[in-house]
Amino acid sequence: MSRAYHSPYPRDFMWGAATAAHQIEGNNTASDWWAREHGRIPNAVAEPSLDAANSYHLYPLDMMLLANAGLDTYRFSIEWARIEPEEGYFSKVQLDHYRRMIDVCQETGLRPFVTLHHFTNPLWFTQSGGWFVPRSVDRFIKYVEAVLPILRQVDYVCTINEPNMVGMWADFARVGPDIGLPEPDPIVVEHLTAAHKEAVNRLRAVGLKAGWAVATQAYQALSGAEMTAAQYGYPREDYFLEMAREDDWVGVQAYTRTVIGNEGPLPVSSSARTTQMGWEFYPEAVADGVRNAWRHARVPIIVTENGIATANDQERIEYTAGALDSLASCLLEGIDVRGYLHWSALDNYEWGSYVPTFGLISWDKETFERSPKPSLAWLGEHAVQSRRAAGGAG
Ligand code: BGC
How far is the CA of 354 from the centre of ligand 1 (A)? Predict the structure, then answer.
């Protein structure tokens, strides 16, 4: 790994992996996604999450595998639907569970990076208007107030994961365009923004570093289509980056690029190399996302998600190496990037299907036994070498 010895990463750069509760914990039965998976609210998905990776119980093992590999940060989400399964009832047992998770994370040698909302809502919330109604803001803030006491000694808190995607898909029954993404619903966006801003105030008041994580799409204009690309990108990405200007940091979540022609987004070229998601294999997406975030938000950036859905772990390493090379250029340009958190620690429930595998660790569907993939060791070694090159303990 001689490349890492010329690492531009600062000593306290965070190296880690990320997950989301619903995608790995299993049995998130009070959530709107669970109801959707079981046909109680539209639209149908290919398969339900069920036990998922049983990380609700096995999280100490997952954390240990990450720490042993050399990573120092674990981003995970706490689940609103478990904590407040009925409006106004906050389960002490579930709050304790997540506090224990934070403790175990720290005891394992990992910095906990906690997300408060990662796509799922309690079913009661969605059935009574979801993010479409003004009281969604108040409801979210009550949840934030309830979790504040368990967040002591956590450095980083993400209020809402990918508000731009939440704005696009808050209505499960919505049908998107054949190519590209729908425009986020303006009412939902207004409520998400208000909820985020108020949550940031509350989190900061107790000394936490607050921000939100934006799905960056690396919009690339063909010559002559610059205006179309700017108009397309603003409501889907740039707005959310601008809304982070007063925050402590902004998260970049990058996977692929979107090429924009005069009529809007173009389909992935038939000659392009693609991933299990049908997305173009484009490791440089992370640098595009970081540069766009820097342009619009001007606050410290953390790559809170980046990865590839592939059944071939060598391809994951190839993708990640390319992504980290492109990220290194951003640091050399002077952009303030504070961390890289790979998506995902584990193979997980990819919002309707277990087929795409993003994980650094796989698991047995019967026994839940974990099998770290070579990519985990590779990323951990990269972290160790980078820390060493920066004069840290390795
Ligand atoms: C989400 C994850 C998801 C990943 C890959 C991000 O949009 O935050 O939950 O699994 O991308 O699609």
Answer: 13
How much is the average pLDDT of 331-357?
98
Selection from 202, 203, 174, 204 nearest residue 188 by Cα? 174
Are 105 and 112 in contact by the 8 Å Cβ rule? The answer is yes
Instruction: Return the exposure string of 136-153: e unless at least 16 CB atoms fall within 10 Å of the residue's CB, then b.
Output: bbebbbebbebbbebbee
Classified as helix, coil or strand, 355 is: coil
- Could you tell me the CA-to-CA distances from 65 to 47, 105, 304, 307, 372 in Å, in that order? 28, 11, 19, 18, 7
Unique residue bearing structure tokens 């392009």: 272
Give yes or no for a contact between 298 and 238, defined as CB atoms under 8 angstroms apart: no
Q: 305 is written with which tokens?
A: 């998600």
Query: Which amino acid does the sequence have at 227?
Result: M
The SS3 assignment for 122 reads: strand
Q: Are 7 and 389 in contact (CB under 8 A)?
A: yes
CA–centroid distance, 126 to ligand 1, in Å, is 20
Residue 89: other Cβ atoms inside 10 A: 9
Tokens representing 215? 């799905």
Say how many Å lie between the CA of residue 23 and the centre of ligand 1: 9
Query: Which region holds residue 109: left if phi is over 0, alpha if psi is between -120 and 50, else beta?
Result: left
> For the chain, what percent of residues have pLDDT higher than 90?
95
> pTM of the full predicted structure?
0.97
Tell me, in angstroms, the distance from the centre of ligand 1 to residue 223's CA. Answer: 30
Per-residue pLDDT tens for 166-175? 999 999 999 9
Stretch 14-37: mean pLDDT = 98
Shortest-distance Cα residue to atom 5 of ligand 1:
350
Structure tokens at 193: 């923004």
Q: How confident is the model at residue 103 (pLDDT cuts 50, 70, 90)?
A: very high
Pocket, ligand 1, Cβ cutoff 6 A: 20, 23, 161-162, 165, 215, 253, 305, 343, 350
| Best probe residue, ligand 1, of 306, 351, 355 (max atoms within 8 Å of C-beta) | 351
Secondary structure string (H, E, C) spanning 18-71:
ECCHHHHCCCCCCEHHHHHHCCCCCCCCCCCCCCCCCHHHHHHHHHHHHHHHCC
Q: How many CB atoms lie within 10 A of CB 243?
A: 21
